[in-house]
Write a structure and sequence with these properties.
Helix content is 33%, strand content 19%.
């Protein structure tokens, strides 16, 4: 009964582009682009895996991923990727990083 008001801790960390670049070097790192197909086609971070956050099958596609890996998640601005990280955390993923400012921050 007393757990009703407990605030859930974030299951991911928001990071800046410089930290994102450092984490890319990890052997277990997976770069996850959650933008639309059109956005992805306009340019993506090299070696990224694309799963459209707006696709109705988004969660089903996430279930195919290895939960033990480190995920570096990005979108256009950082909003959808933060939501994706929350969903992934609820699914049992534990090493999640959201690129603050999205791909625009990475390009800068």
């Amino acid at each position: 009964m007393f757990n009703l008001f407990r605030i859930k801790a974030d299951t991911y960390q928001n990071i800046k582009a410089d930290e994102f670049r450092k984490l890319q070097a990890r052997k277990d790192a997976v770069i996850l682009d959650v933008r639309t197909a059109q956005e992805h086609a306009s340019g993506a971070i090299p070696k990224s895996v694309h799963i459209d956050f707006l696709n109705p099958g988004f969660e089903s596609e996430l279930e195919r991923l290895d939960k033990s890996k480190t995920y570096l998640v990005y979108c256009r601005s950082g909003n959808r990727s933060a939501k994706a990280c929350t969903i992934m955390g609820d699914m049992g993923f534990t090493h999640l990083y959201n690129l603050s400012g999205g791909i625009g921050a990475w390009k800068s």
